[in-house]
Amino acid sequence: MDFSPIVVSSRAPLAPRNEAFSPRPDFQYYRTVATKTVPKPKLQLLHSEKLAKLPWLIHAFSTRHGGVSRPYGGNALNLGFTKQDTHAAVERNRALFLKKLGITNARTLITLRQIHSDLIHRVESPPEHSLSGDGLITNTSGLLLAILTADCLPIMVVDKKKRAIGVFHAGWRGTVKRIVEKGVGEMQRYFGSDARNMIAAIGPGVQTCCYQVGEEVRQKFEAQFAYAAELFREVKESDPVREKYPMLFLSARAPGHSELPVNLFLNLVEANRRQLIDAGVPAKNIDASSPCTACHTDLLFSHRAEKSITGRLMALAAKRRKNSAHGASRG
Ligand SMILES: [Zn+2]
């Protein structure tokens, strides 16, 4: 047996790059230098440009790289307690993730038992019992608010004047229940926030390119939103025979009366962007440019693309503690 993994001599041709994956300059693909080990991708985080401008805020969206988990290929940074992974690996990954953000203890990390609801909790200290719900808001420094996802959208909302923060979990169910719209409302109620001072970031999730849904989902949106039609895209299933021999079918049926099945795709990012705008958040303050999880399983976890065997990404936001060299922590 040959255990040497990838040994590429300096004269060997480049391994063909899979064009389905989007290459990133800071990403380690095979190199032409001689090596006996596959380089471990470093822990890599995504940030919103708009949120990064706030010095009092710590925020990040994790990627799959730079952890110690084994079940999802390589050294995965799985941050949720999944069936396949060990508790110890997840705890270690969480510590690595926080360390990368300059946070040295995880005692104030607050996660939820996420249930696709519109339940939002205002927190002033780490809760004694685990909370069920899909939103967390606070204006207390040092609390690390976290949402776990693998296709659903993690959404951060920040009031730059009152220095209040909110994190929300929005799949299609939570979106139909208007979780993010309600989240803005709760921040106004508790913190006296003005939506015009809010900045929002919609993190990585499954996008309209990959988010196929059933007709029943469209009906639920149509019952709730006047703009529902704009959130769905219909794609006729392609038929290779018809594409190859269009003349054969020309007279068989009038155009637009194809019997080919129609696939329906939901734009969940746009749905949540519209809710933020309806709630009063200026469009220019909304960052909605995150990559699609299902398109980028080289970088992110995707429940759909990886057929449920996948890890969890974490979206984390916190108000920096004053007088602390370690950001949100006291060391
Ligand atoms: Zn996609």
Question: Mind explaining what this structure looks like?
Answer:
The chain has helices at about 50, 85-100, 170-175, 180-190, 215-225, 240-245, 245-250, 270-280; strands spanning about 45, 55-60, 65-70, 110, 110-115, 120, 130, 135-140, 145-150, 155-160, 165-170, 200, 210-215, 230-235, 260-265, 285, 315-320. It is globular and about 75 Å long. The chain contains eight helices and 17 strands. Mean pLDDT is about 85; it is low at about 1-35 and about 325-330. Strand 10 and strand 11 (about 165-170) form a beta hairpin. About 20% of the residues lie in helices and about 20% in strands. Strands 6-8-11-10-12-16 form a six-stranded mixed beta sheet. Strands 1-2-17-9-4 form a five-stranded mixed beta sheet, with no helix packed on it. With about 325 residues, it is of the alpha/beta class. It folds into two domains: about 30-210 and about 265-320, CNF1/YfiH-like putative cysteine hydrolases; about 215-265, no CATH class. The protein binds zinc ion. Zinc ion binds next to loops. Zinc ion (ZN) binds near residues 207 and 292.
Summarize this entry quickly.
The protein is 20% helix and 22% strand. The protein contains eight helices and 17 strands.
Summarize this structure as a short list of keywords or feature phrases.
single chain, 331 residues, CNF1/YfiH-like putative cysteine hydrolases, six-stranded mixed sheet, 8 helices, 17 strands, 22% strand, disordered N terminus, disordered C terminus, binds zinc ion
